[in-house]
Amino acid sequence: MVSGGASSMLRGMEHAFKVDLRGMIDLLSNHLYSDPSVFIRELLQNGVDAITARRQRGDSLFEPSLTARVHHVDGALPTLEFADNGVGLTEAEVHEFLATIGRSSKRLDEARDSFLGQFGIGLLSCFMVSGEIEVLTQSASGGAPVRWLAQADGTYTLETLPSGAVGTPGTTVRLRAREDTDFYFEYDELREALANYGRILPYPIHVTDGEQYDHVNAERLAWLDFADGDASKREEVLAYARTALNMEALDAVPLRTEDGSVRGVAFVLPYSTQSGSRQWHQVYLKRMLLGHDARNLLPDWAFFVRCLLNVDGLHPTASRESFYEDDALTGARASLDAQLRAYIEGLAQQDPARLEALIALHHLPIKALASENDEFFRLLAHAFEFETSTGRMKLGAYVAREPVIRMVTNLDQFRQIAQVASAYGHSVINAVYTYDVPLLRRYAALFGRALEEVDAQSYALALEDVSAAGLEGFVARANAALEAFGCVVSVKRFEPADLPALLIVTEEQRQRDDLDAAREVADELFTDLLDEYEGAYEEVRVTRLHLNLNHALVQDLLHVQDAAVFGRLVQMLYVQAHLLGHHPMRGQELALLGDGLSDMMRWGLRAAQMNILN
Ligand SMILES: Nc1ncnc2c1ncn2[C@@H]1O[C@H](COP(=O)(O)OP(=O)(O)OP(=O)(O)O)[C@@H](O)[C@H]1O
């Protein structure tokens, strides 16, 4: 049997955790917060929460106010006093809340909705810029004022002051700059940080340093009213984008969700953006800046807008730089997605000109969206523009004149085909850009249209073949003239009759010739090895020149006997076909052009001289 004494020995002695404050501060500054200026956010947040708490007590006879004052005493490092006239703290509350890390007066569920803070660690961020934190506070529930002085090593002193020493309820936090942090105490820096975090906070924020003074959130921001449905604020909101965001927005779209209680505005960017690029937004949580990244709130395809958003019903992560993933966030995201989508759909019905401008600038995100959503696609498909062999055209106009949608998926092929296709009265779509092919496929499927992927070679094969008509000798001579250029000649008849020749260049897969050559001389062992390489192919550039027998020059060429003249003429037709088809010319072809022109000039001169002599 185990005696009671022995059992307590087994249980061991109970100890309390100890927290190394320096380690905590290091953790906060290096791993949780991205920038030391967040101490301003934490001070603002505590001040706002304290005022909210005082109001919730039923005290409405005071003018809420938050003030940051910088003091410089005798060339020493500056101090910052951050004062609020909120609820304040009693001595017991100072011990319980200020001096206990992780303890917050705001965590109760009902409190969570009203307050900004909840984790009980925010004040520690002041140690990132100051060696000590001094708090002077007078509770709204009475009692003596308290002075609390905390050091970064985790020790603190607390003294109660004579009643009435502070006067009205409220709290002042005093911080002393260090050599390495005085930058954050400079007036301009401070004002900027206060404005950045507190621009839309509901209580006035003042900043002073000697003669300098500013009320950083004096401006009434129209975008919140606009989000609430006040359409008359539209021009004001666009003007705000112009002056404050330096953006001539194409449009302003009000946003509002039930889930997460989001309100805001999306500005349509006046310039096109890359798919996947990240926009710089302003996201506020209960009117306090949370950050500039709205990735977990906005859909991926919304990279053509920049948003100002205020969120009341989502929860922050501990760093307070993004939102905690929960059902409300999922709902808010889905609703914002639907609203931006509805905006584009609305334009399609009510403002086609604006939609056209939007598509012209942001065709990639819009096409991305259309390629995954049928309804959206049906609505917009006809407005999408494509490059075709007969010029840029909206898909609607294209299908009105072409019974079959013909597309080419390679740019070189497109250049070549442009000539041949028009000979047949066809218009071919250049579908080499992202989303083109899936969009055309979807179009064909949804609207029941025939879609063909065409290439230059198959077009050329369809041209009327006349090489069997006793022209073998002619073709052989022409081939000899172009042998050095790796070009094969054929004679065809095609339209337009004024196009003398058509050059088709294809990249073909050819089995490597040297493989066969190697096999001929290889012994058994190597033959096995070579067999393993059986599938080795190489890309070969194949050039075909189709001479057009409908053209007068080609007809004349049939009767040219002089081998030198004949060769040069064929070669010049070959070069001309390069130029007409916009084919890139290699050094060989450029040299040929030079030589050919000289010959032509020489022959021309000679003919002229002979005319003179005759
Ligand atoms: N200016 C203030 N006036 C009144 N009480 C304050 C003030 N600043 C801090 N407190 C008290 O100290 C507690 C701890 O503050 P702290 O900033 O560390 O955390 P928090 O605001 O509760 O949460 P979070 O870590 O999310 O900011 C608060 O919950 C509040 O009770």
Tally of distinct domains:
4
CATH top level of the largest domain is Alpha Beta
| Backbone CA Rg | 39 Å
| CATH topology value of the largest domain | Heat Shock Protein 90
- For the record, what is the CATH homologous superfamily label of the largest domain? Histidine kinase-like ATPase, C-terminal domain
Percent of residues in helices: 40-55%
SSE layout:
Layout: H1 4-11, H2 21-32, H3 38-56, E1 66-71, E2 79-84, H4 91-98, H5 109-112, E3 130-138, E4 146-151, E5 156-160, E6 170-177, H6 187-198, E7 205-209, E8 212-215, H7 222-227, H8 234-244, E9 251-257, E10 262-268, E11 282-285, E12 288-291, E13 305-311, H9 327-350, H10 352-370, H11 374-380, E14 385-388, E15 391-394, H12 395-401, E16 404-408, H13 411-423, E17 429-430, H14 436-447, E18 450-453, H15 456-461, E19 464-465, H16 472-482, E20 487-493, E21 501-511, H17 513-521, H18 524-532, E22 537-548, H19 552-557, H20 563-580, H21 587-613
Parallel strand pairs: 1-7, 11-13, 16-17, 16-18, 20-22
Antiparallel strand pairs: 1-2, 2-6, 3-4, 3-6, 4-5, 7-8, 9-10, 10-13, 11-12, 14-15, 14-17, 19-20, 21-22
Helix pairs in contact: 3-6, 9-10, 16-20, 20-21
